[in-house]
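Is this the right way to post structure tokens for a design question? Let me know if I should format differently. Anyway, here goes:
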């Protein structure tokens, strides 16, 4: 999320971020709860998971230092699509939607860079999930041959 920020912009962002120390086992947020902030991981590890229709929690990914999660919450209001849980004691930096909006109003150039980086992070995750989905289909369908014709 910090890609392309100069020293002055990093300083402005750092003044806005709120540090949070969290112990292993702490739930940062749960699926379907309203999202209001994003988190940058300085140290530790965070499990991102989702409930299956059968009621089982499925780990989607484990994030570590320099990763960001909850990023869509600063762009648009809505419910969290996943659960985030600390799996290794973590130092996080928190940015609320309100603080993000104020930062963007005061420093539009910085806001634009942050917005681009947030969209890039989200896009990379969507692409990775799509690749995982296609791989799962190939396995489930037994690598069935692709039929020629009207598709």
């Amino acid at each position: 999320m910090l890609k392309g920020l100069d020293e002055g912009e990093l300083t402005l962002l750092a003044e806005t971020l709120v540090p949070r120390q969290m112990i292993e086992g702490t739930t940062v947020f749960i699926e379907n709860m309203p999202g209001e902030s994003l988190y940058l991981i300085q140290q530790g590890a965070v499990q991102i998971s989702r409930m299956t229709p059968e009621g089982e929690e499925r780990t989607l990914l484990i994030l570590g230092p320099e990763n960001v999660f909850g990023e869509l919450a600063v762009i648009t209001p809505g419910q969290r699509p996943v659960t985030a849980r600390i799996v290794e004691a973590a130092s996080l930096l928190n940015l609320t939607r309100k603080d993000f909006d104020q930062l963007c109003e005061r420093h539009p150039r910085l806001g634009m860079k942050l917005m681009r980086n947030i969209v890039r992070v989200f896009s990379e995750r969507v692409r990775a999930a799509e690749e995982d989905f296609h791989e799962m289909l190939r396995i489930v369908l037994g690598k069935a041959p692709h039929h020629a014709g009207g598709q």
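Format looks fine. Someone answered above. Worth noting: DSSP finds three helices and six strands in the chain. Residues 38 and 70 are 4 Å apart (CA to CA).
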